[in-house]
Amino acid sequence: MRKLAAVMVTSVLLLSTASASLAVGTVLLPRGYESWDKSRQKIVEDKKSLFYGVHYIYLDKKGMKSYKDGGSYPEGSRFVVVFHNLKEEGGKQVEGKKNMIVLMQRDKKQKETGGWLFAGFSADGKPSGIDPVKNCFDCHRKDAADRQFVISNYEDFARKK
Ligand code: HEC
User: Fold this and answer.
1) pTM of structure
2) Ligand 1 binding site (Cβ under 6 Å of any ligand atom)
3) Are the C-beta atoms of residues 119 and 127 closer than 8 Å to each other?
């Protein structure tokens, strides 16, 4: 029994070391993204939009320079977007519960998706197993092919509250 436990601990350790070079599907939500630079609160009121609700964009230190000046994003740069419901309270629209999280991580191996790893997570950070090409990249390619597939702007950060 003790031996089995030791084997399990070893495989967990191996798994966490392997997480640095993840394949799509096993990607984890980066730890501590809440402390990265954060955009202002963004509200999308169009119910037909995928972005309906409230969202915030987070960007790590590595990617900030390119976000500002348009240069090439260094390998490993990461964006996280956190989505919340929009709810009515006393005639005002306010931020509700978290409902989804998405990640873009610079990864030159991901040739099919423009050198970014795209991944989606549930509100509690569990991988949602979405297809990154159909569900993510097609849209990013359409909107931002000339901006390394990054759609949002540094301005959204400069105006942060
Ligand atoms: C319908 C089009 C569309 C689809 C589909 C889509 N996105 Fe986006 N994405 C956007 C738009 C528009 C923004 C910019 C939002 C803003 O400016 O506030 C964005 C922003 C992002 C950002 C912040 C970096 C950037 O490009 O500005 C990440 C990370 C991201 N999306 C990941 C994903 C992932 C992962 C998926 C698939 C689960 C996905 N997106 C699917 C349109 C889309």
Assistant:
1) 0.85
2) 42, 50, 57, 79, 81, 102-104, 118-120, 130, 135-136, 139-140, 143, 150-152
3) yes
